[in-house]
Amino acid sequence: MNTPLHGLKVLDMSRILAGPWAGQLLADLGADVVKVERPGAGDDTRHWGPPYLKDRNGEDTEDAAYFMAANRGKRSIALDITQPDDQKIIHQLAQKADVILENYKVGGLKKYGLDYDALKSANPRLVYCSITGFGQTGPYSQRAGYDFMIQGMGGLMSITGEPDGMPGAGPQKVGVAVTDLFTGLYATIAIQSALLERERSGQGQYIDLALFDVQAAVLANQATNYLVGGITPKRMGNAHPNIVPYQAFATADGHMILAVGNDGQFKKFCQAAGKPELADDPRYATNPARIAHREHICAEVAALLAANTTQAWLDLLEPLGVPCGPINSVDQVFSDPQILHRGMRVELEHPVTGTVTLPGNPIHFGRSDLNLRQAPPKLAEHQSEVITDWLNGD
Predict the structure, then answer these.
(1) Which chain positions lie within coiled-coil regions (predicted)?
(2) Which one-letter DSSP state was computed for residue 388?
(3) 305: domain range?
(4) Is 211 found in the same domain as 100?
(5) Which of 304, 330, 356 is the last residue of a domain?
(6) pLDDT given at position 1
(7) Is 233 inside a domain boundary?
């Protein structure tokens, strides 16, 4: 296959989500990713169910759907890092690897001789990426870190949820583990950058990634609203701190998103809604003015949208280029014709179930291919195969 990372070898010693997400993306891009798991138990997420993957008879297997989310395209081997014989095998694999991914606690692998310093002497071209909650240094470095607590500590929950005084008010986490996912994406970027730099220097290097750092970074405009503007962001429900109207509104039969991004779009909306005078009102004519009068203009827009159905508004506004959309459930997302057209629902062969349906990869290259052929592996499915390929091959 004409995959961008064909020929690269990745030893994925990570668990749960952030590291495995990076490993899955590298596998999608064509790397040979070998997942090292605990004998008998495997990755913790194999047991994070229900739901579990079902076999051909409709019975639950030992693998949870959660595990399926982050381990596509990998080969699995089972090694006990506390055992000298298995440590020796990992050392041998590391000598062949281009990349190692791990997310053990700080110093967790050093006592087994599997840290970067112990492995780089035999393989100076090794790119070694460590993912932890708080990084390898600093006053919190010894703390364990999980996505949920990092969303709280990293400020995300302070800006997510209904504002104080509203029904249902209080901090909320995001519905998926976004800090883990963002960290996996940053890890993938860092690894590929280190591999590119290796082409110039001939040397690998160590990468230190922390969930806490990543969460602070991806506060994005909310962070700069504070750092540049001195404004501490608050929870605003579905509203946007810098653009109005840009939120969810009730319609006659449900809810929809209206995401007006500029004054021209606002004018088009007002004309379509039969209230062109709103766009000429000095209180609403510009985005700064609408922010200053947020409560009043949102009340006007809410009254207009409540008078018709979601689909009627979509049919009216989409041809005018006014950004809007429905609020889909997950089942609606994966039956959406655009999602299906873009290949975001894939069927992969699986030795136990026959096939498994998974989300696709959103990257579309002009020339290169993605490797979306191999389902997440059974525990130790490729033990002898990997040993043969990596240690007895070229």
Answers:
(1) none
(2) I
(3) 246-330
(4) yes
(5) 330
(6) 75
(7) no
Q: How far apart, in Å, are the Cα atoms of 111 and each of 95, 108, 388?
A: 19, 7, 28
Q: How far apart are CA 282 and CA 300, in angstroms?
A: 15
Q: Are residues 137 and 258 in the same domain?
A: no
Q: What is the pLDDT of residues 123-145, one digit of tens each?
A: 999 999 999 999 999 999 999 99
Among 311, 330, 349, identify where a domain stops.
Answer: 330
Nearest to 84 by CA among 115, 112, 120: 112
Question: Catalytic annotation on 180?
Answer: yes
What sign for the dihedral angle of Cα 43, 48, 54, 60?
A: positive
221-243 pLDDT, tens digit per residue, is 999 999 999 999 999 999 999 99
Residues 40/83, Cβ–Cβ less than 8 Å: no
How far is the C-alpha of 278 from the C-alpha of 300, rounded, in Å?
A: 9
Q: How far does CA 63 lie from the centroid of its chain?
A: 21
Given the residues 28, 32, 115, 180, the one annotated as active site: 180
Q: Check which CATH number belongs to the domain holding 263 and give it.
A: 3.30.1540.10
319 burial level (CB within 10 Å; 0-12, 13-18, 19+): exposed
Strand partners, 361: none
Residue reference for tokens 């961008």: 4
- Mean pLDDT, the chain, integer: 97
CB neighbour list of residue 169: distance below 8 Å, 6 or more residues apart: 161, 162, 163, 235
Could you give the number of structural domains in the chain? 2
Task: Count other Cβ atoms within 10 Å, centred on residue 301.
Answer: 24
Number of Cβ atoms within 10 Å of the Cβ of 151: 23
Residue 302, pLDDT > 70, answer yes
Q: Hey, what are 215's tokens? A: 């969460």
Asked whether the predicted pLDDT for residue 91 surpasses 80, the reply is yes
Residue 135 sits at the vertex; the CA angle it makes with 158 and 145, to the nearest 5 degrees, is 50
- What residues contact 343, with CB distance under 8 A and at least 6 apart? 360
Give the CATH number of the domain where residue 89 resides.
Answer: 3.40.50.10540
Cβ-contact 326, 249 below 8 angstroms: no
Instruction: Say if 125 falls within a structural domain.
Output: yes
Tally Cβ neighbours within 10 Å of residue 10. 23
